[in-house]
Every structure is written in structure tokens, then in C-alpha cells.
Amino acid sequence: MRRAGAVVAGVLSKLQEMAEPGVTTAQLDRVALEMVAEARAEALFKGVRSPQARQPFPGAICASVNDEVVHGIPCETTVLRAGDLLSVDFGVRLGGYCGDSATTVAIGEVSPEKRRLMDATKGMLDVAIAEARPGVRWSQIARKMQQYVEDAGFSIVRDFVGHGIGTKMHEEPKVPNFVSRELLADDIFLTEGMVLAVEPMVNAGSYHVRTLANGWTVVTKDGKCSAHFEHTIAIVKGGCDVLTARV
Ligand code: MG
Ligand code: MG
Fold it and tell me: I need a surface site. Which of 44, 147, 155, 199 has the fewest CB within 10 A?
């Protein structure tokens, strides 16, 4: 899982470097595919099917711009412009094990509000990384994540949550970024050796989202911006290791 995580981290670093005004999300997708082939890994998102969508997901990456929350489809006509927020989500399987990570990138100069949204979402993931260790219940961490981002005046997307990860990208348990009755009733007791993909999605406005007619792209209902950060973390003695950490 460390090796898969390192490939994911390398691709996201490269795409972050490339993402600037004038670049299309299709160009980013092509580079991701080339790097996956070079690493002899498998891009996890390409070809995924959804009951809501007629077409399997066509991209190796999800590229979601501004009010797009997740599952944005890379496209030749989506040209990045200064002031955009781009969220890139990416996962691979290597040697039978998966890595999954996402980051939000500012394209050129972005508004102070967008910058604050990005920083709060990244900060929320950092809260989870600082708190995750054996013996802790996930609801304790989710409460701190939720408080952190709601204190900043933003809202946490409810319809998409993190997940266990291993030989498959999505494994049990569900790893929410907020406290719900459901979580409290069936809490996750963190133990050494667990691997989780923690992925807060945070909206500048309300947390409500909807899916576009393509069956994939999820956007905010109010049209306001969204940000997304994700790491695959392994629970180890005394803390956690970020397997998708970028060097
Ligand atoms: Mg992901
Ligand atoms: Mg994920």
C-alpha cells in the first residue's frame, strides 16, 4: 500500500505543477495515464460503472472545477482559468493494493474566500491525521474535523464520505467527516493495521449537492465553490502513516 500510495502522490504532485491557466483537464488526465503505465500500475477510476450513469467513468483522474464537488470528467473543453479551484482525485492499484488521494489546487490567483475554503478543507484533513491512532473512536475525530471547518463558516458534504481501502478501493467501513446518529450507533474503533481513505469535501455555501445529467459530476446545489482533500492513512502504533504523502 505504501508503493501504491507513492505512485498516487507522484502523479498528484506532477498534476499540481502542471495545473495553470490555459491547461485543459484532458491534458492532466493524459499525463496521469502515462505515469500510471510507467509505474506498471492500474488507474482505478477509469471504467468504473455507476447505476446513475450510462457511460463508465472515462477518466483516470476526477477533475472538478469550482462548484463541482467530485467526479468531474476530464475534458478537452475544460480549460483552466486564473481564479479557478481545481480538485483532482486519483487512485491506483499496484501489486494488488490500492492508494487513493485528492487535492485542491488554486489556478493562478484565487479570491481570498476560495483560499480560505481550500485551507480549511486541508486543515480539516490535517486534524484527522493528527488525531488518528489506535484506541481512538472515529466519532471523536469526526467531531473535531466538523468543528474545525464549521467554525470557519463552511459546510461539510454529507452525501460522500471516506472509506476503508485495501485490495479494493472502496472497502468497509464508511468514514464520515461529520458526526451522525448512524456513526455513533456503529462507531469505528481504530486499531493498528487499519487503512482508511479520509476525504473531506467542504462547500463554501450549503452542503447540498446534486448530480449532473452525465450521471457522474456532482455539483453544489447553490453553485458556490467546493474543495476536496484526501489521504490514504494507515493506523500504526501511536499514530498514523500517510501512505499518499507527497515528498
Ligand atoms: Mg479519491
Ligand atoms: Mg476515496
Answer: 147
Ligand nearest to the CA of 89: 1
What is the structure's pLDDT at 247?
Answer: 83
Query: How much of the chain exceeds pLDDT 90, in percent?
Result: 100
Q: Which-ligand-closest: CA of 165?
A: 2
Distance 102 CA to ligand 1 centre (A): 5
Mean pLDDT, range 184-206, rounded to an integer:
98
> Which residue ranges make up each domain of the chain?
2-242
Ligand 2 midpoint to CA 169 (Å):
7
pTM (2 d.p.): 0.97
For the stretch 146-153, contacts whose Cβ atoms lie closer than 8 Å and that sit 24 or more positions apart, written own/partner, are: 146/177, 146/178, 146/179, 148/120, 148/123, 148/124, 149/120, 149/121, 149/123, 149/124, 149/200, 149/202, 152/116, 152/120, 152/123
Ligand approaching nearest to the C-alpha of 196: 2
**CA of 223 relative to ligand 2 center, distance in Å:** 23
How far apart are the CA of 163 and the centre of ligand 2, in A?
A: 6
Q: 2-242 — its CATH code?
A: 3.90.230.10
CA 48 – ligand 1 centroid, Å: 13
Residue 100 alpha carbon to ligand 1 centre in Å: 5
